[in-house]
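User: What would this chain look like folded?
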Amino acid sequence: MTLETVNCATVNAGALPVQSNTNQIDSSSNAVQCNWPTHNQTEIDSSHTADHFIVRNGVEFAGTHIILDLWGAKNLDNLELMEQALRKAVDVAGATLLHIHLHHFTPNGGISGVAVLAESHISVHTWPERNFAAFDVFMCGDAQPEATIPVLRDAFKPANINVSEHLRGANIEHIEPANDL
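Assistant: Here's the prediction, encoded as structure tokens.
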């Protein structure tokens, strides 16, 4: 690359910079000095560091992970629609978008990507040739990942949608973690 400033997240993939944060390339070694983006959490009381765990019905857990399988879906090769749907899903869930990265495969037009959130992520993988899309929506704190379901349904119009929920990091009492992991 002949550019002096690049984005760390895209330099290894050989893509052009897409974010405003910049990183310097040492022209003698092509090494990149990364200035990774951070999320400002200064509004949190410094005497107590919030971990954003959730308590629901007496169960403490890290976050809600929703798995969505869309069958008979449409427009699964449309990058613009995918980005719009992810942005709207983040918004209605009350989450904080940090970055979206989408990759368009050829020749079938499938899309793989992720919306990185302060609260975790939404990932997607599509198979337009099968009218199938797999979404993972994982969020902690006050975000509402279940609010993303109608947004994704409206955007991609699936004939059938399968939804499952997993409480990540559920605090199960009296079970010790394995020491060999």
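Residues 1-27 have pLDDT under 50 and may be disordered. If you want, I can go into more detail on any region.
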